[in-house]
Structure formats: C-alpha cells, structure tokens
Amino acid sequence: HSYWLIYRRRNKVIVLLTVVFCIGLLIFHNKNNKREHSPIRIIEENESSTSQVSNDKPKKQRITAENYQPPPPCDGCPGEMGRGVRMTPEESNDLEVVMKQEFFNLKASDKVSLWRTLPDTRDGQCKSISYTSDLPTASVIIVFKNERWSPVLRTVYSVINRSPRHLLKEVILVDDQSDIEEMGKRLDDYCEENFGDLVKILRAPTRLGLIKAKNFGGRTAIGDVIVFLDAHCEANQGWLEPILDRIKTKRTALLCPLIDMISNYDLAYMGDANVGGFWWSLHFNWISIPKRTRDAQKSRVDPYPSPTMAGGLLAADRKYFFEIGGYDDDMEVWGGENLEISFRVWMCGGSLEFVPCSRVGHIFRPGHPYNMTGVKGKGDVHGRNSMRLAEVWMDDYKRFYYMHRHDLIGKDFGDISDRLAIRKRLNCHNFKWYLDNVYPEKFILDENVLGFGEVHNPARSLCLDTLGKDEKGSLTLSVFSCQNGVSANQYFSLTKNAQLRREDTCAVIGGRSGDARSVQLVHCEYSDKGQTWTHEKNGTIVNHPSGLCLDVENLANSQPILLKTCNSSKATQQWIFGTYSF
Ligand code: UD2
Ligand code: MN
C-alpha cells in the first residue's frame, strides 16, 4: 500500500514536471515566433545574440530547399490579410520626415510582420487551374539601393513562402552599393540563418543603377527562368506557377505578373488590372485593357498581350532574355529600360504578356530614396536612357520624343552600335509594325490627320497651349504666345473624325465664362459628339454641338481660350495650323 502511495506521489511529480516543462516550451516557442514577426526586434537580437547562438546551442542545420519551414502566420498582428496599418498619434509624430526620406511609411512597414497574410486578389477561376509538376525552375532577382529592412525581407519571405519548393532555385539579392548599415553584414547574417541556401547576396562592385544591376544578377542566375522584382514587393498566392507554365509553352514570351498596389501610406494591399502603354515623352502609363485584347482571350485567366510594361516585375526564360540582349548596359540608374525591352521583344519576334493569375504587390513611391544623377548625360538619366531607346528602336517616330525634349536634340547618347547590331541580328520589325500590330490604339499625332502642330491666331500671335499642365485628367485649354513649333504644349492635331486633340485628350465645350464658354481637354471618346470640331475654309474653328467659335478677343498669355458666337470677319477668330496634310 505504501509503495502504491509513493508511486502515486512520484507520478504526480512527473506530471507536474511535465506540465512545467511544456509551459516552458510554449513560452520559449512563442518568444521565438514573436521574434520572427517583429522586424525591429530581429535586428536588435541578431546583433547581440549571434555569438551566443554559435557558442551555446548545437549548430543548426543549414537551411535548404528541403528543410526550410515557413514561420507560422502572425495572428492578429498589424497588416494581416493585407489590411492597412493604424498608427497612434505618437507613432505618426515624425512621419513627415520619414516620408520625405523614404517616400513610404517605413514605420507602418516595421509594424507589419515580415511574413504576412494577403487577400487572394486572383480571379476565382485561377484557383482551380492545376499545373504539371515539371515546370521550369526560377531564380528570383531583387536589386536594391537604399531599401529598408522590413520591405526587403517581406519581399523575400513572400517569394520563398509562396513558391513551390522544387520550382524556386534561388533568390538573388543584388545590393547596388546601399548606404544603409543594416543592409550589410546584418542582412548577410539574417539571410544565412533564416534562408541558408535559398538566398544569395551579391554586392555590386560599383554603383550600377538598377538596369545594370538586373543584368548583373541575371548573369549569375542558374534557374531556367529569371524573375525580376523590386525590393518592396509581396508575391501573392500561386504567383509563380502560371508564369512558369506560360514560359514552358512559349519561351519567347516575357511575362509580367499583375502588379497589385501596396499603399505607401499604410501598407494596405489592393488588387488592380490594366495593361501598359506609353506617352510620346517616353514615360510609361497604364491603360485599360483594349476591347480587342479582351475579345482575343479564350478565357479570362489566360495571359494577354500588353504593348509595354512598367519595368519592375518581369519574368523571362533566362537564355532567351540574354539572346535578345538583356538590358542596355549603357543605360544609367533608372528609367527607359522598360520601354526599351518592351519595344524590342515585340519587334524581334517575341511577346510581352500579363499573367492575370500571377499577382504581386508593389509599394508605389512618389520619389526615390537614392541619388538619381548618373555620370553621363549631365545627370538626366531618364532623358539620356530614352534617347538611346528612341534612337535604336523608334525610327522616325523618335521625332515625337524630341518634340517633348527639344533640349536633347544633338546631345550625346553614347555608343549604340551594339544595340543596333541586336536589331539587325534578330531581323526585327520596324517601329511602324509595332504601332500597327501591337498598339493600334496609340494615337500618332501627325498620321491620318487634317492638320497638326501649332494652332495659331496671327492677329494676336497667340497659340492654343496646355501650359504644361498634367494631361492625365481634365484641364482647361489656354493660350500663350506662339513658340514657333518648339513647344510640345502647343502641339495639337485635327483628326479626320473631327477631334481637336492632344496625345490622349480631346477638346470639348466647357463651363460658362460670362457670355462665352471655356474649353476643356478630357479623355478622348469617339462616341462623344461634344468632341467634334471643324476648321472652316473661312479660318474659324467651330465646336459642333454648340456652333461656337474659338476666339482670342481680349486674351493674354496663360488665359483660358473662349468659345464665342461665330463671326468669320473677326481677326480674333482666325486660326492656322502649323502643318496641313490634305
Ligand atoms: C519602375 C519599376 C522599376 C524600374 C523603373 C524604371 C515597377 C514596379 N518598378 O520604377 O523596376 O523598371 O520603373 O527604370 O515597375 N535600384 C537599384 N539601383 C539604383 C536605383 C534603384 O538597385 O541605382 C533598385 C531599387 O532599390 C528598387 C528597384 O531598383 O528595388 C526599382 O527602383 P524603384 O522602386 O525606385 O523604381 P520604381 O518602382 O519607381
Ligand atoms: Mn519600385
């Protein structure tokens, strides 16, 4: 009996000890988990504990694709499910300073787990597609200059955790001489400990600029496919397979995931879907998916063609990417390479496609946390890079670029012989072919029009003028003294279907101004009868629905142009276009 008692007591002790041990384990585990999720704490602990880790604990097995385990999701943490982060007033105290330097809310980003859940922004149909297991493998290349810890690591975690193990060969981080301390050894150590084999860090020997940095990373990659991402992205559910699947069937397709928006203010993740276009000033723009593109799609979830791409998020068969010339290694820092590769791949027999089932978020920032001046072209990197692309690929259409950049005519753009050799070697189509076949929606300012150039009133030497206002929305049309055809702000076209227009906007009758009416430039709509104008033989320009005429009576520089009752004998209603083409 007493033996039994002792036995029971001992049992109790064992149970108690086990409970204590389990609680201890739980606390320890929890602490470790928290560590995974708070980027700030990771930085602090890493510094002080690296030596302890290697001394006290048995050496951990190096992480490989086989033994890597994603950290568990951070329930209830800020930003989960892609929600925006709320900041306390104290936290927002010096927000303006942060925004000025980083152009995104670094403090909000630091509150979000490095590995967070996102809303699935794909079309429902995407989820039921099954892919074969023998897809090509991918190397993901992330170039960075002065990017911050939390967005960079969030990019890496999202890529690793949302890519099938056997398809992700490696993540290559290319540090383009960042000035941020934590992105040095601390990053090396963190990646070694948490990603082992999966992440490689390359340090650029000199500041390369993002274009050369991408080539540099791409050349060391070993995957069948290279995927470029900016260093402030989050790859979403199932993002990789549809890309690899498309490249498997078409190796000459360059592919872009759809770029979802991550708010630069509160890190909220939002879906989006467009295709890429361009301005003749050679800036990229988003356009809505043309009807012909929608109609050609067999299914909503099929990849569809896009005339251009934004630049940041691009996948290509690695060998094909370099066969067609990679990026232009003489372009500096930022800009132009995205249009260059877009024109090139289309003109040289490949295609550029958007993959609706692949979604990747990107923090759009209104400025750059790094120096934008290159060595060449007096620091105007976008200007010089765009000159190179216009000179190599755009034939006579480069005239529209120089119309916007009159100042660049005759300036040095470096040696383009290697790039021209690519065009010859690949026997590429000309730019006219590209416009006709890939981007027929693009309005060509001086083709199939009745008149173009300055719209000039000789009596007052005033010309129609946008005054350089933003033309993305709607703006009031004005007048300014004529600039002899050198100002892009004074370039208008009168089309055969009676639009008086700019590149993307058309003149319509605007609001009342005394007993006259003003004129607005709004997005062109062929069906909008308000957008029809005629240039009469008697010299007037008449707005159709209203029957009123453009009149510069009593107007001076920078004032809005007005529509008044037509009177062809008034000198202030006489207009001449720079060039007539009928
Ligand atoms: C867009 C593209 C970007 C690139 C650029 C035009 C998207 C989402 N992003 O600009 O990828 O095509 O247009 O050139 O379409 N970086 C360097 N070295 C530098 C400068 C930048 O490594 O000298 C890195 C930078 O840290 C970032 C990436 O390049 O990871 C792109 O730069 P960005 O995010 O400032 O460019 P973004 O998104 O305005
Ligand atoms: Mn970016």
Automatic annotation (TrEMBL):
Pfam families: Glycos_transf_2 (PF00535), Ricin_B_lectin (PF00652). Pathway: Protein modification; protein glycosylation. Residues 41-86 are annotated as: Disordered. Its EC number is 2.4.1.-. It is found in: Golgi apparatus membrane. One of its GO terms (cellular component) is Golgi membrane. Keywords: Disulfide bond, Glycosyltransferase, Golgi apparatus, Lectin, Manganese, Membrane, Metal-binding, Signal-anchor, Transferase, Transmembrane, Transmembrane helix. The chain crosses the membrane at residues 13-29. Its main location: Golgi. Residues 447-578 form the Ricin B lectin domain. It is a single-pass type II membrane protein. SUPFAM superfamilies: Nucleotide-diphospho-sugar transferases (SSF53448), Ricin B-like lectins (SSF50370). Belongs to the glycosyltransferase 2 family. GalNAc-T subfamily. This is Polypeptide N-acetylgalactosaminyltransferase. It comes from Didymodactylos carnosus.
